[in-house]
Predict the 3D structure of the following.
Amino acid sequence: MKDYTIPTQNICPRSISFSIEDGKVYNIKFQGGCPGNTKAIAKLLEGADAQYVVDMLKGNDCGGKGTSCADQLARGVEQALAEQPA
């Protein structure tokens, strides 16, 4: 299992951490932000296929910011997948 922590921009959480093992996402934690929403995202995605997370959440917008907590999680997972050996 490989752990990742990504800094965020233009959203409430300061960072997002998660783990990837066998192409699945685990241990999602948002540092800051709306606890109800971020905990729900983490519960819903625990054990989900990493590419599914990217496909489902990338581009999700919050209040016209051009990004969101979910979008930045997706972008972080996408970056982590790109760094993993094929």
Helices lie at 35-45, 50-57, 69-83. The first strand starts at residue 2 and ends at 7.
